Amino acid sequence: MDMNNIESIVQQVLAEMRGMGASGTSGGSASIPATAKVAMLTQKEHFDVKEFPIPPVGDDDILVKVEGCGVCGTDAHEFKRDPFNLIPVALGHEGTGEIVKMGKNVTKDSAGKPLKVGDKVVTCMIFKDNPDITMFDLNKQNVGGADVYGLLPDDDYHLNGWFSDYIFIRGGSTVFNVSDLDLDSRILIEPCAVLIHAVERAKTTNILRFNSRVVVQGCGPIGLICIAILKTMGIQNIVAVDGEEKRLSFAKELGASQTVNFKDHKGIEALAGAVEAAFGGHLADFAFQCTGSPVAHANIYKFIRNGGGLCELGFFINGGDATINPHFDICSKEITTVGSWVYTLRDYATTFDFLKSAKDIGLPMSKLITHKFPLSQINEALQTNLRMEGLKIAIVNE
Ligand SMILES: [Zn+2]
Question: Under CATH, which number does the domain 16-179+365-396 receive?
Answer without folding.
Answer: 3.90.180.10
